[in-house]
Amino acid sequence: MGAVFGMLLRYMKVTDSSALTMVSFPGDILMRMLKMLILPLIISSLITGLAGLDARSSGRMGSRAMVYYMSTTIIAAILGVILVIGIHPGNPKLRSGASNSAPKNQEVSSLDAFLDLLRNLFPENLVQACFQQVT
């Protein structure tokens, strides 16, 4: 249902920017949460996997894991390129009506400020969020 809904909304002309913001907000939150979990999940799974192995099989298992990760990375990159060529995400021709109606010096609305507060609850990178200082 989400894919069909997304395809239908892509070709509709929506002139209200607050409606676009509200529709894209759950997706932004989901993507931030997924990006936030990537680094701790990978590191913890590698540590627990290697802790359970003995010294002799670690070399063989490490090489197999490296081949597995490299092959899945190559497959993901090829699939990503194919999907980008097929779908054309962010094509400015599809959003020409919405971008021309927006003024150049756009003021921040209260809705944007509130949603930005909620977005910032979920940092994209936990390590960067721990060491980053906001002035």
TrEMBL record:
TM region positions = 29-53, 65-87
**InterPro entries the UniProt entry points to:** DAACS (IPR050746), Na-dicarboxylate_symporter (IPR001991), Na-dicarboxylate_symporter_CS (IPR018107), Na:dicarbo_symporter_sf (IPR036458)
Q: Which Pfam family, giving just one, matches this sequence?
A: SDF
The UniProt entry's GO biological process terms, in alphabetical order, are: L-aspartate transmembrane transport; L-glutamate import across plasma membrane
Q: Any idea where this protein resides?
A: Membrane
Q: Name one GO cellular component term.
A: plasma membrane
Q: What is this protein called?
A: Amino acid transporter
Organism of provenance: Labrus bergylta (ballan wrasse)
